[in-house]
Specification:
10 helices, Beta Polymerase, domain 2, single chain, seven-stranded mixed sheet
């Protein structure tokens, strides 16, 4: 799907859907063009090479189904960025692993091109604002790039908050009634936090490079403070993700400790029971042997069986009382 929005030099907003309209917009150095490609067809993807003349390596990164790592490349005439985002709703609520969404961006003098193979919530919101006539294209191309990056980063915060709440719920469940499903939930949060940290660290470096004047021909000095704000948000997200991972590790250790303590309690009860029944098994084993001569008690007396059973019961009761008094059982 190809969607283009163009603000001319005199402030007129128009929608562009063909190559000729894109070429006319690029010729207007005072205007601003935003072209968005979502799951582009081969004909739509050809615009990147035929109209913009982008480097083939960047086009391959845009159209390939694989997930490329975040990066920023300077091609003099334009910048090429690969950034990652996450789905708008929390992945942990669905009980599945977090899957990053790749967004490829081109920044030129008077244009921004975004390309993604799956819907991105931040891009969809900005497109809706453009369709309603919002002030998305009122500034230069670097401000539009900031709006895309800022929306992408802001969508990560609800995910991190949900991961944090999931760990809190798991900790309460571990202390009350640890189940195997609780362990799986903790491990899922731990994996998601690691994946989130993996690409936020790289994106933090991208925002840092954009905010320190490394690309003065395409990013104006007035925009530095805005990219620095994105950098600060990424630093905060990275700190929160580290906190979530530490909490998940703590919850995992708590779960293992609780399970181990429960196992120790069970083993203690079984050991105490075995200690009680061991002498009870010894008494009938001794008196059940075929002795000759005078034995005590005489097995031919009617009261001998009851005496042995009573002695066994008394001994077992005394041992259970002593174990209980020492809190062994």
């Amino acid at each position: 799907m190809l969607r283009g929005h163009y603000r001319s030099g005199d402030g007129t907003l128009t929608t562009i859907t063909d190559s000729e309209g894109i070429r006319r917009a690029l010729d207007d150095t005072q205007g601003l063009l935003w072209l968005d490609l979502e799951s582009p067809s081969p004909e739509e993807g050809a615009v990147l090479s035929d109209v913009f003349d982008f480097h083939p390596l960047t086009i391959e990164d845009c159209l390939a189904p694989r997930l490329d790592p975040p990066k920023i490349d300077d091609y003099r005439r334009y910048l090429f960025l690969v950034v990652h985002g996450v789905e708008e709703y929390p992945p942990s609520a669905e009980g599945r692993e977090l899957e990053p969404l790749e967004l490829d961006l081109y920044l030129g003098d008077n244009y921004v091109v975004s390309c993604h193979l799956a819907p991105v919530a931040a891009v969809s919101r900005l497109l809706e604002r453009c369709q309603r006539g919002g002030p998305v294209l009122d500034h230069d191309a670097d401000f539009l790039l900031h709006a895309l990056l800022d929306g992408l980063v802001d969508d990560m915060l609800p995910v991190v908050d949900e991961l944090n709440e999931t760990v809190d719920r798991a900790e309460e469940q571990v202390l009350s009634d640890p189940q195997r499903s609780t362990l799986q939930e903790i491990l899922l949060v731990r994996r998601n936090s690691l994946r989130l940290r993996r690409f936020t660290t790289a994106e933090r470096e991208i925002a840092n490079r954009l905010s320190r004047g490394e690309f003065p021909t395409l990013v104006r000095e007035e925009a530095y403070v805005y990219f620095r704000d994105v950098y600060d948000h990424l630093v905060r997200i990275e700190y929160l993700v580290e906190s979530v991972r530490d909490l998940a590790d703590g919850a995992l250790n708590t779960y293992l400790s609780v399970v181990s303590n429960r196992l120790n309690e069970v083993m203690k009860v079984l050991t105490a029971a075995a200690a009680i029944f061991l002498p009870l098994a010894l008494i009938p084993a001794v008196f059940g042997m075929n002795f000759t001569g005078h034995t005590w008690p005489p097995w031919d007396e009617p009261w001998s069986f009851g005496l042995v059973v009573g002695a066994m019961a008394a001994l077992g009761g005394i041992m259970a009382f002593l174990f209980r008094r020492r809190n062994w059982i």
